[in-house]
Amino acid sequence: MTDAKQFDERYRLNPRRSDDPGARKRSRFVAEQQRLLQSDLTRRPSNIAFFEDLLTDPGRPDDKPLVGYFCNMIPIETIIALDARPIRLGCGNPALVQQGEEVLSGEICPLAKASFAAFLDADNPANRCDALILPSSCDAKRKLGEVLADYKPTFMFNLPPEQDAKRFGAVAAAEVERMASWLSKRLKRRLRRSALLEAISHTRRRTALIRRFQEARSAKPAALSVRDFFVIIQSAAAGGDIGAWLAEAEKALTEVEAYEPTRRRFRPRIVLTGAPMIWPNFKVLNLIEEARADVVADTLCTGAESCFDPVVYEEKGRKALMRALAERYVFASPCPCFISQGTRIARVLDLVQEYRADGVINYGLRLCQLFDMEAYRLSRILKENKIPFANIRTDYSLEDTEQLRVRLEAFLETVEKD
Amino acid sequence: MISAGVDIGSTTTKAVIVGDEGPRAAVIVPTGNLPGKTAVEVFQAALSEASLKESDVDIVATTGYGRRLADFGDVVMTQIKACAAGALAADGPAEAIHTIIDVGGQDTKVIAIDDEGDIEDFSMNDKCAAGTGRFLEVLAQKLEMPYEDFVQEALKSETLLQMNATCAVFAESEVVGLLARNVAKCDIALAAHNAIASRIASMTRRVGSRGAYCFVGGGARNKALVQTLSEHLNKPIHVPDNAQTIVALGAAVGARAKAAKALERGVQ
Question: Which of A33, A119, B69, B107 has the fewest CB atoms within 10 Å, measured from its CB?
Answer without folding.
Answer: A33
